[in-house]
Design a protein that fits this description.
CSR-E3_Ligase_Protein; DC_STAMP-like; 4% strand; DC_STAMP domain-containing protein; transmembrane; mainly alpha
Length: 663
Amino acid sequence: MRSLYDLLFVERYREGRRQALGRSKMADIFYYSGVYDYRILRYMINFPIGFVISYFLYALAWNRVNFADFDPLYEQLFKWIIIMTSSVTFAISPVYRCAIVCVLFGSLGKNGQGLLSVHVFTNLHDGPIKNIMTNFNLSSYIITCHLKLKEQLATERIVMSTGPIEAFLADKFGKSTTKGRKMVHMLKALVDPIAYDMTLSDEDKAIAATIDNAEVLKTRDVMLNEKKDSISNEDVKPVWNKLKSKTAKLQTMRLYLQCNEVFDKGIKKCHDKFRDMKSKCYNMLWFLPFLNRVVCGKFDVLHICQASEKHQEATRFCNEMMQGALQRSKSIDTDTDQMNNITEEVLDHLRVNMHYKAIVEPRITRAYRVKQVYYRISQRFHIIKVVFKTLKSLLGCLFIFLLYTLFRDSIQMIRNYLNNIDFKNVFLNSYFWRIDEKRQENGQVFLNPLSRAEWKANRLMKPFSPPTSDEIEASWQPLARFCIASVVCLLVMMVDYFFYAITNEVIRFTATSVTSGGKQSFHLDIKGVGFVADLVRDMVNHDFDQNVNLTIPSEQCRLEPSPPDWLFSWIHIILPLLLMLILQVIFGYFIKRLILFYVIGGIFRKRNKTRTIQLYNKLLFARVNGRRLARARIRYQVERHLLQHEAIAQQGSNNIACSPIMN
């Protein structure tokens, strides 16, 4: 325990002097000792202080631009690395400790005006600007809501104006559609067979496949039987090539193919039957190989069916039949074209599309336009929010940069204070006069009182002296910054208030509901006698009477705007501006003196005493030299005056001696 006490509270080379001067242990540790005395104890005391200051600086500055906030773990890791590193450095390094304290006090002076301006503009964004954006979003919602109400009201008015027609259509459309549907079915029953014959069908494709199979059998018969002298009619042009109409060609070709199909099916059936009989014969006489060749060979389909001859006969017969048919009907081209045109016209008239164009499409278009307006407003508002969020992040980065410049200037001032003993060494403190009193008590040359010339020549001042001309001139720039910041803040707060007041008045005088009423009457009576009159009367007669009272509430559009938060504006905007005016504009010079004289001088006490002794010696040397120079000047003037008197007396005696000789 004794060794721990000595390690913390005992400094060997100071104990003798402390006891001789009668100082207490606490006074020697906290007031008289230097920054490198009682080192372990200073580490233990300064670390919690540095931890609190570092946490405060992180919450004020680094928290704005935490580069690791994309992950909670990395965010906490970055946070505590910054805080612990700064705390340990604060406890170990006296220069860093002094710089941090200078930053804290310097932020209150004109060097910290940028920091306070960034803080004010950040709070301006979080307060009035954010409230303006909220009310703007609310007003855009109110506008789009009233647009929807007007659209709904216009739609209802259209419905009211077209009510009798809609009722008439609703009452009579069923009857007319029932009768029309029967007529349509009847027309379709008449037209469909003709339309079927006018187009290429699946039946035509099946006939073509059958004819292709017959062509294959015919080709096989020709190749196996080597019927070179068999001449086919393949070189004969088809009959339908003489026709011009596509429909006539299709009909002629279909008749020709159907004619060929009759023969081709017979050929195919002949092949199938005799092929089966031949295979069954071989299966029954399998044990008589020589006999089965003689007997079963008689069932050869090539000799029995004669596919090539039958195909030629079919071609010849069908060509003759088609030639005769074409000779009998000379106008088959025009007849088929007219039939096709009539069929297509009837089919076109049977296609009905009425409801979508009349009702559905305009409603979809109107709804799309209202939604488009709302989405565009939301998109522009989102862009504005992104811009302000980016500006807020940039202000956070600017705050870090200004804090760095303040820290850099504090380090430079501390270095000048420690390395240049004449750096702003013009302040007279109590230790200065204590030295002077000590010399006066010892009968030595002392300075009290200082003359006005000495004050002016050395620019001496006290810590609480009025500002100098240079300090007054340097305060104009902070004053201009304060005026600009104040004007901007006041304008934004005024816009916030007036925008809220206008929106509130508009909402207060907005109707809570829209009411519309009307009476609809429609009477249609058909008079006449007979079957046609009865049919038309049954379909058209209509009586319609209706009273309509339409009320559309607008409560969903009456939203209260957000009022300005005057307490937030007073605490976070107006009060910092007042502090800026008082501390950074009016008393900015005093904050700088306070940092230089009390903060840096209080931390580096030995250097402060050395600077005071240097200032005292400088003034004492100037006074002693001044007195010596004054005495030398007096002696010089006395000797000069005596020499002048001697010269005058010598000249007078010479004049008296020379006067008789001249006579």
